[in-house]
Amino acid sequence: xxxxxxxxxxxxxxxxxxxxxxxxxxxxxxxxxxxxxxxxxxxxxxxxxxxxxxxxxxxxxxxxxxxxxxxxxxxxxxxxxxxxxxxxxxxxxxxxxxxxxxxxxxxxxxxxxxxxxxxxxxxxxxxxxx
Length: 130
Hints:
By secondary structure, the chain is α+β, with helices and mostly antiparallel strands. The protein has helices at 11-33, 65-75, 86-92, and strands spanning 41-43, 49-53, 59-63, 82-84, 96-106, 110-120. It starts with 10 loop residues before the first helix and ends in a 10-residue tail after the last strand. The model has no long low-confidence stretch (mean pLDDT 88).
């Protein structure tokens, strides 16, 4: 394909690769079956709290402002799109193609920038000047 492969095992990069794989698998499933199914994904970076709740039926969950922002990214994505916060975009910008999708209002935060993750860069970017 037109997309390359990122060079690092950085967790943010690995998650972006995983999201692209999920998006592409859903797209292929839709083409093969004709089922009207799509996926939207939102990614953001930051701290979160996780834990198990319940005594009879145990459930694991994750909470926090980071999770809420990822949810805002997802809810503002188009079907089949991976939406990134500015923080996520900045973390992986040297390895992936992205497009600005403008801004949206995020509850409790205000106006936020949204970027669509397209695919990994096809070539190794030049080294930054020191």
